[in-house]
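Translate structure to sequence.
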């Protein structure tokens, strides 16, 4: 009977969550479930950081739209849900161990309130909707601890590289140091829950990654994923298109379908108007990025754009000239203190004044 109840719960969870959010395995007649819990952040949410070793340090605030998910893993005992609770772990990369421990205790409390009933959906709903309020981090979350660890580790690596080797430490002193660290770790573990895990943003034997870059990189990747899931009205063709078929300008955030912007770019490139390509929205000054152009037009058209942009840029420079060989015509720059120019394509060295082969110290007839 228990197995049928568990099976029904698993099937219900599959119908509620996406494959990215929920997965499971059945091993030795036990269900092992894994949840990625994405927390919806308020519009103006920030993470803050500072080096806690500096008493005068002030919190730096960085706006963010997405944080990495909480990871909940749960194994269902044979007598769940009638008697036993799921055996679980909860991990997070941006919360401290004490905060994750509080969440674990809260999940225990929810089980006590609902013992005898399926509880996984209740757990996930709480973590998804109430984590920020429960931990009193509704407007911002601090990563001071992770940032300070990163700074300390970076300084240690830098000092080791500078010194070449670590200073010698006596065996007795080293032993006392190891014992003290072990004592601190054991004391820390007693205060926290073994089911609570701080997910490290570095691999074993590797340096800590900058937690600021880690969160910003994740935020950028998640913004792209969420953008592709939605539908937008293109302000050129006025048709509704999926995010997968659209492109967005920054920082204005105006959205157009890729087909319309590709046509817009094709006209600009063929007309030679390759500088200062702005968002098509009226009076908008957001400029399109190089990578954006590359992703929207064909390789052949992008090569034309790249060549025309280079030529246009060189034309605005005093030293911008072209190889005089008819079968080359590649852009080249002359030496700043002389008249010699060298083509980077065919290696032809020529006089920048008369365009003939470079004549060294001989005065140029064109100049005279």
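Result:
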């Amino acid at each position: 009977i228990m197995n049928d109840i568990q099976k029904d719960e698993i099937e219900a969870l599959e119908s509620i969550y996406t494959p990215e959010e929920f997965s499971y395995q059945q091993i030795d007649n036990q269900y092992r479930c894994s949840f990625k819990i994405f927390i919806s952040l308020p519009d103006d949410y920030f993470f803050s950081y500072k080096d806690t070793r500096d008493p005068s340090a002030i919190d730096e605030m960085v706006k963010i739209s997405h944080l990495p998910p909480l990871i909940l893993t749960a194994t269902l005992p044979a007598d769940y849900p009638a008697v036993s609770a799921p055996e679980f772990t909860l991990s997070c990369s941006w919360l401290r161990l004490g905060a994750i421990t509080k969440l674990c205790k809260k999940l225990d409390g929810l089980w006590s309130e609902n013992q005898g009933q399926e509880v996984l959906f209740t757990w996930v709903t709480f973590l998804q909707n109430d984590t920020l309020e429960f931990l009193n981090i509704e407007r911002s979350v601090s990563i001071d601890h992770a940032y300070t660890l990163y700074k300390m580790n970076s300084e240690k690596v830098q000092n080791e590289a500078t010194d070449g080797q670590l200073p010698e430490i006596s065996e007795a002193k080293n032993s006392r140091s190891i014992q003290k660290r072990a004592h601190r770790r054991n004391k820390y573990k007693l205060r926290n829950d073994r089911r609570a895990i701080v997910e490290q943003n570095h691999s074993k034997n590797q340096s800590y990654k900058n937690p600021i870059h880690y969160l910003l990189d994740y935020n950028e990747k998640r913004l792209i994923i969420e953008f592709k899931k939605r539908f937008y009205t293109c302000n050129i063709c006025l048709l509704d298109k999926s995010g997968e078929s659209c492109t967005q300008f920054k920082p204005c955030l105006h959205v157009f379908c890729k087909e319309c912007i590709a046509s817009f770019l094709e006209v600009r490139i063929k007309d030679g108007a390759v500088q200062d390509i702005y968002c098509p929205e009226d009076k908008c000054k957001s400029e399109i990025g190089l990578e954006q152009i590359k992703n929207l037009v064909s390789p052949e058209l992008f090569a034309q754009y790249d060549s025309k942009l280079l030529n246009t840029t060189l034309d605005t420079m005093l030293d911008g000239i072209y190889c005089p060989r008819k079968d080359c015509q590649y852009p080249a720059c002359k030496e700043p203190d002389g008249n010699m120019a060298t083509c980077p394509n065919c290696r032809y060295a020529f006089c920048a004044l008369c365009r003939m082969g470079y004549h060294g110290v001989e005065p140029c007839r064109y100049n005279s």
